[in-house]
């Protein structure tokens, strides 16, 4: 997307609050909010299955109930909050609802840990709380536009903070799990959530909201969601599902079917995350030169190469080398994908952002379901190879879909 230098600048110069001026001068505050949000969520979610099975001694079907339940709540939360943002609701109030819900979940499990409280309170609270990712992305988009920043580059920086949160969150949680009880784990999650909440209260401007709705009304333009926005979600959904399949089936395949050393999945995940972070950090200039759609095509081609070759690996070195490609393809998808989708609905950034988050989320769920079904009837190698179909779907749509029309939004 070509950056429009005057996008939001007039609004910024004439109407900004002192809070927005402070955040404009010190954007590190926003990145800190993004990091602690991602860290807090990444600290809790990966341990949920261990919490239910090992700590509560509950049957495995409860995993489907809890994960499926809060995922559905999160999908609806993203869609509703995205619409509210585009209709002019200040983003801070919505983000506070997200964070308070997550904080309440940690507090309840710290005080009254049980399957009952996890189902009755945890499902809705986690669903609303994890919706903070979509709200934070929408907040970042509006902040970038209203302070004259390049939204595409700012999206990359936000994704980098999100990735770093997931790099540190799960290891910290499992490190605590190896030495302490879940009371200490939920206490730590509560403290992390309080830091997240405090940063939001201090640094997110109370008056920050969309500047686009008034502009559309003044121009007499349609406020409808474009059909192309839905089509643009397909590649992100497909690549997220493919990534989820390998995350679920990869460790078992590497250990059971390739008979590689037990440490291989951990090293593979680490190499993938490092590659993902690096590609996000350096993606700005190639994206400015090639455009978001061409970068997404590059991502899908990388996915085709990875899934076509990973099942033929015979050594740890080969696996790690291929995981560099895995991190590159998914790093591009996860960081560029949001701008790619937003470009098809520049007049509705909140809804577009919620569509991106939901495409990633539903792709992850679909990948987990496909892994269970395919692996039950065939091998984990064939399960991973099925990701080729998803990568091919993403590539086909990206080659066919029309680039978004160039839009220049005049700020009020």
Automatic annotation (TrEMBL):
<keyword id="KW-0812">Transmembrane</keyword>
<protein>
    <submittedName>
        <fullName>Sugar efflux transporter A</fullName>
    </submittedName>
</protein>
<dbReference type="InterPro" id="IPR036259">
    <property type="entry name" value="MFS_trans_sf"/>
</dbReference>
<dbReference type="GO" id="GO:0005886">
    <property type="term" value="C:plasma membrane"/>
</dbReference>
<feature type="transmembrane region" description="Helical">
    <location>
        <begin position="383"/>
        <end position="401"/>
    </location>
</feature>
<dbReference type="GO" id="GO:0022857">
    <property type="term" value="F:transmembrane transporter activity"/>
</dbReference>
<feature type="domain" description="Major facilitator superfamily (MFS) profile">
    <location>
        <begin position="228"/>
        <end position="412"/>
    </location>
</feature>
<keyword id="KW-1133">Transmembrane helix</keyword>
<feature type="transmembrane region" description="Helical">
    <location>
        <begin position="266"/>
        <end position="284"/>
    </location>
</feature>
<feature type="transmembrane region" description="Helical">
    <location>
        <begin position="229"/>
        <end position="254"/>
    </location>
</feature>
<keyword id="KW-0472">Membrane</keyword>
<feature type="transmembrane region" description="Helical">
    <location>
        <begin position="160"/>
        <end position="183"/>
    </location>
</feature>
<feature type="transmembrane region" description="Helical">
    <location>
        <begin position="28"/>
        <end position="53"/>
    </location>
</feature>
<feature type="transmembrane region" description="Helical">
    <location>
        <begin position="93"/>
        <end position="112"/>
    </location>
</feature>
<dbReference type="Pfam" id="PF07690">
    <property type="entry name" value="MFS_1"/>
</dbReference>
<feature type="transmembrane region" description="Helical">
    <location>
        <begin position="296"/>
        <end position="321"/>
    </location>
</feature>
<keyword id="KW-1003">Cell membrane</keyword>
<comment type="similarity">
    <text>Belongs to the major facilitator superfamily. Set transporter family.</text>
</comment>
<dbReference type="InterPro" id="IPR011701">
    <property type="entry name" value="MFS"/>
</dbReference>
<feature type="transmembrane region" description="Helical">
    <location>
        <begin position="118"/>
        <end position="139"/>
    </location>
</feature>
<keyword id="KW-0813">Transport</keyword>
<dbReference type="InterPro" id="IPR020846">
    <property type="entry name" value="MFS_dom"/>
</dbReference>
<feature type="transmembrane region" description="Helical">
    <location>
        <begin position="327"/>
        <end position="346"/>
    </location>
</feature>
<keyword id="KW-0762">Sugar transport</keyword>
<feature type="transmembrane region" description="Helical">
    <location>
        <begin position="355"/>
        <end position="377"/>
    </location>
</feature>
<feature type="transmembrane region" description="Helical">
    <location>
        <begin position="59"/>
        <end position="81"/>
    </location>
</feature>
<feature type="transmembrane region" description="Helical">
    <location>
        <begin position="189"/>
        <end position="208"/>
    </location>
</feature>
């Amino acid at each position: 997307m070509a950056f429009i230098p005057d996008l939001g600048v007039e609004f910024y110069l004439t109407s900004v609050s002192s809070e927005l001026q402070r955040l404009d001068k010190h954007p590190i505050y926003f990145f800190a909010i993004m990091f602690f949000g991602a860290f807090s969520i990444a600290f809790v979610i990966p341990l949920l299955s261990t919490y239910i099975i090992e700590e509560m001694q509950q049957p495995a079907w409860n995993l489907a109930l809890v994960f499926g339940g809060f995922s559905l709540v999160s999908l609806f939360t993203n869609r509703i909050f995205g619409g509210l943002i585009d209709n002019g609701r200040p983003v801070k109030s919505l983000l506070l609802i997200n964070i308070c819900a997550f904080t309440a979940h940690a507090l309840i499990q710290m005080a009254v840990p049980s399957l009952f409280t996890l189902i009755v309170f945890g499902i809705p609270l986690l669903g609303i709380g994890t919706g903070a990712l979509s709200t934070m992305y929408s907040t970042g988009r509006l902040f970038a536009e209203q302070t004259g920043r390049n939204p595409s580059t700012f999206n990359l920086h936000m994704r980098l903070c999100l990735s770093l949160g997931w790099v540190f969150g799960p290891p910290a949680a499992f490190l605590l799990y190896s030495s302490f009880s879940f009371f200490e784990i939920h206490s730590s999650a509560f403290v992390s959530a309080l830091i997240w909440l405090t940063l939001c209260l201090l640094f997110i401007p109370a008056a920050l909201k969309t500047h686009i709705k008034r502009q559309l009304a003044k121009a007499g333009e349609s406020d409808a969601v474009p059909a192309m926005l839905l089509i643009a979600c397909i590649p992100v959904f497909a690549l997220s599902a493919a990534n989820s399949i390998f995350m679920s089936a990869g460790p078992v395949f590497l250990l059971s079917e390739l008979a590689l050393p037990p440490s291989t999945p951990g090293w593979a995940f680490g190499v993938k995350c490092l590659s993902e972070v690096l590609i996000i950090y350096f993606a700005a200039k190639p994206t400015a030169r090639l455009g978001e759609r061409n970068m997404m095509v590059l991502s899908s081609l990388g996915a085709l190469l990875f899934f076509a070759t990973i099942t033929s690996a015979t050594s740890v070195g080969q696996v790690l080398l291929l995981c560099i490609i895995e991190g590159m393809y998914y790093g591009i998808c996860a960081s560029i994908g949001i701008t790619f989708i937003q470009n098809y609905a520049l007049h509705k950034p909140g809804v577009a952002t919620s569509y991106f988050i939901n495409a990633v989320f539903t792709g992850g769920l679909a990948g987990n379901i496909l892994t269970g079904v395919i692996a039950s009837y065939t091998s984990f190698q064939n399960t991973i190879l099925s990701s080729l179909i998803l990568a091919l779907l993403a590539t086909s749509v990206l080659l066919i879909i029309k680039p978004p029309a160039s839009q220049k939004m005049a700020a009020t």
